[in-house]
Amino acid sequence: xxxxxxxxxxxxxxxxxxxxxxxxxxxxxxxxxxxxxxxxxxxxxxxxxxxxxxxxxxxxxxxxxxxxxxxxxxxxxxxxxxxxxxxxxxxxxxxxxxxxxxxxxxxxxxxxxxxxxxxxxxxxxxxxxxxxxxxxxxxxxxxxxxxxxxxxxxxxxxxxxxxxxxxxxxxxxxxxxxxxxxxxxxxxxxxxxxxxxxxxxxxxxxxxxxxxxxxxxxxxxxxxxxxxxxxxxxxxxxxxxxxxxxxxxxx
Length: 251
Description:
Layout: E1 2-5, E2 10-13, E3 32-34, E4 40-42, E5 46-49, E6 54-57, H1 58-61, E7 73-78, E8 84-88, E9 93-96, E10 103-106, E11 122-127, E12 133-137, E13 142-145, E14 151-154, E15 169-174, E16 180-184, E17 188-192, E18 197-200, E19 216-221, E20 227-231, E21 236-239, E22 246-249
Antiparallel strand pairs: 1-2, 3-4, 4-5, 5-6, 7-8, 8-9, 9-10, 11-12, 12-13, 13-14, 15-16, 16-17, 17-18, 19-20, 20-21, 21-22
């Protein structure tokens, strides 16, 4: 895991994965979030207690007898109703009931609840309203999935309801006003479910380099409202709070 200090302009390596140590972090974490109790959740099947500091595998807490076989989650989210959701590559989504602790699997076809998901390859996830979650897929755009199994989809594969060329969503971030930031492999949008409009973040840039030239892999907004975007080959970008200017950090 890497931490970047924007004031010093330095990167710090925090933990190194040791495959022989069950308390070491996942080898390739691609999603992390902190819940209301302070616990840090990382994909790779582990959660991290910052008081410890100790990494504990999810599968050691939730066994297969509870309905979750231990598939490695690709993304993790805590919904507004307290339920824990996991997104996997190949096995769809899992929801843990906050009261009973039992797991429900949502996937394609008859194997899932409701009408089923359009794909079982899920890359990203963020909490939505009314206990639902937003899900980013590998090629099928944006999904909204609620606890009953209802699925709403926005994609460019079938109906063009979502802009972008490939519909591969690397990251999702729930915004305070109800919108969701969608980090597509080709572009970054802010989606308003009330108007169903995707607003391009990169199109607002008037000065400085644009992250649109590379493949975005992650983002975060700092205390000043600036948006930081990490890319695969072009380093890191910092967008101003109004998204009109951009600064690039690259080795």
